[in-house]
Amino acid sequence: MSNLRLINETEVTTGISEFYVNNIFTDDFDIYKVVFNNISTASSSSCNLFHRFVDSSGIAVTSSKYTFQTLQIRDDGVSAQYRGDANTSVSRVLSDLSPEGHSSTNWIYNPTNTNSYTYYTGQSMSGISSVLRMGQQICVLEETSKITGFGFFVNGATTTFSTGVMRTYGLRVDA
Amino acid sequence: MTYLGTQPNDVKKNTGLYTPSEILQLEKDGHWGGSLELIEEQTVSGSPTTIDFTSIKENVYDVMFLSIENFIHSGSTANIGLRFYESGVLETGSVYKYSQNRVTTAGVMSEADRSTGASYILISPYSMNGGVGNYNINCHFYNFGNSNKYSFTTYQSVAEASSNGTGFGGGILPQASVVDGIQIYTFGRTITSGTAKLFGYKQ
């Protein structure tokens, strides 16, 4: 048996522009793997997806406590970096209309530990307007509040989600 | 909250243990077991120039993980790449897109390798002469069994030799098709040792 434990699988609801799953991080595990797959949006235009955590009240954290950097590299050589020390979300990954879209694998560390900030690393892939956009992300949520959920939203609500799934796994660590 | 089997309710923090009743219910639901499931493991034997996975269970797992461990090739300088099978036919056309960044212990960081139309997806951080070191690479694959989606991969790699380096990047097969096989190859070089393990993420 592998050491990953599937905790939750949630399909994206078609037609929404914010997608969060709560009550996935508990005191049972310190480290989680979150996989997004088959994410697509209704518009053929590129749209920016920003990540946020969810607090124990079920509300997305919007305080200016996200310190992050995202490196986006492309097959056509036009790379970009997004970073910030006091942002209200994590910028950014991309999605658009299927058959392109977005997938990613992410690690979340210490989300419910109120003596630690919440850390996040991730790798993503998006096919946007025939261009490959690979993303490498790091983030610290500089709050010690209890974090129990994760997800993302379409920046500016410029479009809505069409398909997608989010799966959360806990990493077993032998005592 | 929906949960496949039970609420997160481990007996001991971080141990991921289940109670007997939870195990019985998980078995009944078909969800018992760890969530990273081995599909196939191949250890290099003989003198292959490729390693091919042709029974990848793409209809079972929409996200997969490939671990390439201690790969060594012979002959002159070569990289390691990926190609995919569509309905049993290896795609060798110049249709793959990829891009990667690499960092070396010599202090070089660069977006060194990319292509808008190659016959492979490059996954090694740099090319090495045969026999001088080994590659360790892990890859994630997305949407292989979905005929309505392009097939994605992301990867991280490390090459150990006289000058060590690491890389990360991604690739796309921009064709809405079912991918039912994966090929690891070294541009015609003979692979002398190594192991490759393909896993599926439980859904």
Key descriptive features of the protein:
heterodimer; A: 175 residues; mainly beta; 4-stranded antiparallel beta sheet; B: mainly beta; 8-stranded antiparallel beta sheet; 48% strand; disordered N terminus
List the chains of the largest interface with their residue counts.
Answer: A-B, 53 and 52 residues
In whole angstroms, the N-to-C terminal distance of chain A is 16 Å
Shape of chain B: globular
Strand proportion of chain A, as a percent range, falls in: over 45%
Unreliable segments of chain A (pLDDT under 50, ≥5 consecutive)?
Answer: none
List how many beta strands of chain A DSSP finds: 12
Helix content of chain B: under 10%
Sum up the overall morphology of chain A in one term. globular
Arithmetic mean pLDDT of chain B: 87
**Residue share in β-strands of chain B:** over 45%
Radius of gyration of chain B, taken over Cα atoms and rounded to an integer in Å: 19 Å
Beta strand count of chain B: 13
With helices defined by DSSP (H or I, 4 residues minimum), what is the helix count of chain A?
Answer: 0
Q: Give the neighbour order of strands across the main sheet of chain B.
A: 1-13-3-9-10-11-6-7
Order of helices and strands of chain A: EEEEEEEEEEEE
Biggest beta sheet attributes of chain A: 8 strands, antiparallel
Structural class of chain A: mainly beta
Uncertain segments of chain B of ≥5 residues (pLDDT<50)?
1-9
Residues in helices of chain A, as a percent range: under 10%
H/I helix tally of chain B: 1
